[in-house]
Amino acid sequence: MTVLEVAAQRGRALVGGHAVGHDDGADVGWGAYAPGADLPVELVELLDEWARAAEAVARSGAGPRAGEAVRVSRTGRHLAARVSVALGRSVDYCDPVTGFRIPLRAVSAVTRVPEVTLPRRGRRGRGRASTVFGEPTPWATGLTLAALVAGLVLLLNLTLALPMVAGLGLVGLLIDLVVVAGLVPALWLNRRVPTWRWAVWGAFAGMGVAVLPLLVVAVRGVPAG
Q1: How open is the CA angle 173-178-183, to the nearest 5 degrees?
Q2: What's the angle, vertex CA 164, arms to CA 159 and CA 168, rounded to 5?
Q3: CB-based contacts of 133: which residues, under 8 Å, 6+ apart?
């Protein structure tokens, strides 16, 4: 089965390469979306508003990390998942902000989430609100992942560094801190990436907690094991 692409171009939402949503009579060169009747009217309207918000963000020149751009990206991902559910097909989400293509496979359900406000330009250039659905923060799953990563990093750090710290004292602790500090820049770059951000903060927590027992061993000179 062909995978549909959900994207936005020039203020129009595209599903499978065809425009959906508001038709202002302009000749944009896109054909009518044949299976459009399979999409709920509400979803079509949300896709239309999202595409217009994405166009407003693009015209404003906001970077991909700007608050408005992040909300557009997350909202588009959520709406693409809803399209997958409505049509019962896998889709690829093409992010209009970053240009990244995100495959959505085997999507079976999407939870209705709180609304967020996206900026959009009116006809006279004044900002007005366009309300579409955002993406909920997966606190339960995220915190669980962070806790698991924190525990794993703590265990690995103690296993590898404890013998060295016990033998070298504060010098061994300093060596361990230098090694850990070398990992921080790479982790910091992913602190806002969905899914990975939880692992990043879990790793920071694990490394931070590991310093305490290592410091005790370094100061007291307690032998490992």
Answers
A1: 125
A2: 155
A3: 46, 75, 78, 79, 112, 113, 114, 115, 116
Give residue for tokens 């217009």.
Answer: 52
φ and ψ at 92, to 5 degrees?
-110, 130
pTM, two decimal places:
0.45
In what side-by-side order are the strands of the sheet with 4-9? Answer: 18-20, 12-15, 4-9, 91-94, 101-104
Q: What is the pLDDT of residues 105-162, one digit of tens each?
A: 655 555 443 343 444 444 443 434 333 334 457 788 989 999 999 999 999 999 999 9
* Residues 102 and 92: beta-carbon distance below 8 Å: yes
- What are the sequence ranges of the domains in the chain? 4-133, 139-220
Q: What is the pLDDT of residues 25-76, one digit of tens each?
A: 443 333 344 444 578 888 888 898 999 998 888 888 777 677 788 888 888 8
Q: What are φ and ψ of residue 120, in 5° steps?
A: -150, 145
CB 6 within 8 A of CB 93: yes
